[in-house]
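Changelog note: in this version the structure field was regenerated for every chain. One regenerated record is shown below for reference.
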Amino acid sequence: MPALVGRGTVAGRPCVLLDCDARSDLAYLASIAFEQRIPIGLAAATGFSLECLEMLHAIHDASGPCIGAFNAANVLVSPSGRFHFVGWGHPLDAAARARLLAALPPSFLAPEVGLGAAPLPGSDLTAATLFFHSFLNLGQLPAAAQRGMRGEGPPGLAAKVAGLIQNSHATRPEERSIPRFLSLYREILAELSITPDASALETLLASIAGAEQSRRAHQLELADDGRWFRLGAASPVDLTRRGTQRRLLLALARLHVTHPARPVSWQDLFTEGWPEQRSTPESARSRVYVAISALRTQGLREVLHTSDAGYFLAPGLAVAFSSAAPAPAPAPVRPRRR
């Protein structure tokens, strides 16, 4: 778990500064993996679940707080794929915990917490195992494990699987035990010849994060109404007071989404940029040229192309429209002084 080293605000919203180099979270990267059907793998999934449960056990041993909820957003991910658990390291009263749960994306909740009860260590166990069920594709499990979960197969294995489930989902949170769960879990994995490997998940996450960073570096994000745009990881550019440039960029971006690399003639761009205005062909063409040059100067030089037929965005450029205010560009990582 990363240490808390500061507090502040970003874009008017409260934030904390953590002693880690994370740039994403498991919720975002796992959504990419599921969308692209990238298999997580048994070794990676079981290794991650063991590390998570050991972390919870260490926190409870140190009389740390319980939340009774688990979310993939609780797991921050560094560019190297290393994961950092957040959300359990600082005391939370009932009101603060309610605000935290409301701020997170939909979480896996222990039943009693969902009904308003105060969370206990057993509540954290239930929430975490509910998350593991969603994270691990049960179809990846060996046939013996699948039979054990159905109460079939060798009696010893079936009994251990049943004990694991009964422990994590006992009616009363006091009857649930992370140490007992860990012990049974390790026995089952050994019996199934599954070797947990959390580093395999780190390698996978680093690969996904690297590919996503490369994609985003070539993505043009702009407001639905064109009031701002951002290319890659650069700072957003404000076009609020540049109505002509705003209208030209919107015209180019909207056509690019449906017909990549199709040029827009200077005549059509003049109509978009200066609606209901008349001008001589020479003047209109010059005005379009000046406005396009301004957009290039503001950061679009590498992706705003020209041909004999007109202007167009680079064929491989991804374009995303946003209805939200632009998030600030990520700050450069600075090593902490020891």
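Spot check on this record: Residues 226 and 249 are 7 Å apart (CA to CA). The chain has two domains: 20-210, 219-322.
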